[in-house]
Write the structure tokens for this entry.
Amino acid sequence: MAIGWRLAQRGVAVDLFERGEAGHGASWAAAGMLAAGVETEPAEDSLNALNRLSLSLWPDFAADLERVSGIAVDLRREGTLMIALNRDDTAQLRFTYDFQRAQGIELDWLSARQALEREPRLNPNLAGAVYSPGDHQADNRKLVRALKRAFIAAGGTLHEHAAVAAIETAGGAVTGLRLDDRRHAASCVVLAAGAWSGEIAGLPARIPVRPVKGQMLALKMDAMAPLLRHVVWSPRVYLVPRNDGRLIVGGTVEEKGFDAELTAGGILALLEGAWRVLPAVEELPIDEMWVGFRPGSRDDAPLLGPSEVDGLVLATGHYRNGILLTPVTADAVARYILTGEVAAAIQPFALSRFAKAKEQA
């Protein structure tokens, strides 16, 4: 929807086909964390740079979207706390802190007392914490509603409950889409089907994107006196407080295909992990529980830009960072479609990298 909105803003005729309700896949299931700093990991230089670039775009992106849609996306900038509950956690947190600081991430090491001054309801026995002032959050469900409204207002045409059966090609170029009951002609197709990207027929090679299951839940806090103000990461769970009082708890990481079942073990792990971080959660009502499917590629980095099929453009495989990478993905993909220029930031994320890796192996 973000890509479609950016293209429609520039006068391009855009039809968006959605197998269900727009924005109700991984984007709906997400927690909305914009964690470019604390997500920085070794051996992922290109992805770390892309995450940080997209985070820098978020304030203007959110302001523009809110202006045209009239829907607040609740971009919150209190920052993020990573906490350690014992000596082993502290050692791992110190390693992560040292590495991320060396990458230029602004972080503050906090004693247990300093962490409790920021968040008094945290476990009083915590061992230490790191504060990342640059890692924020947005309400992902408000985001998709805003994008839907902005896309339609800009002139885009949305087809919901219209699953694409196949992408049609001829002579190495895209010619359109085949739906169950009709064909839609197109000279350019953007494949942005998340975890389902590899399920669509008609491609010369299978798109290497798989579903990575995540179970999550939401608890109900008092919106006027919430237990937390910051996003909090612990070794087992993350906690994301919303403006309406919901507290998002996530998320399991399971390689189980499209298994949409909530499990006792998954929910127990989330609740126990949350309780160890924030003991007062045991008094909170459960508001909702759900399963989502992160779109993971072979290296868990996105697939962005042109493919070997003329007119087929990829915007998928964002794994845990789909909400974070929305602004840069929308801008870079729209730019390529309009000008033929592949932005430097997305060049490392071409589908061809997997073929190159195989040849080198």
User: Anything to note?
Assistant: The chain has three domains: 2-73+139-208+298-360, 80-133, 210-297. The two ends are 37 Å apart (CA to CA). The longest strand covers residues 209-220. The domain at 210-297 is CATH 3.30.9.10 (D-Amino Acid Oxidase; Chain A, domain 2).
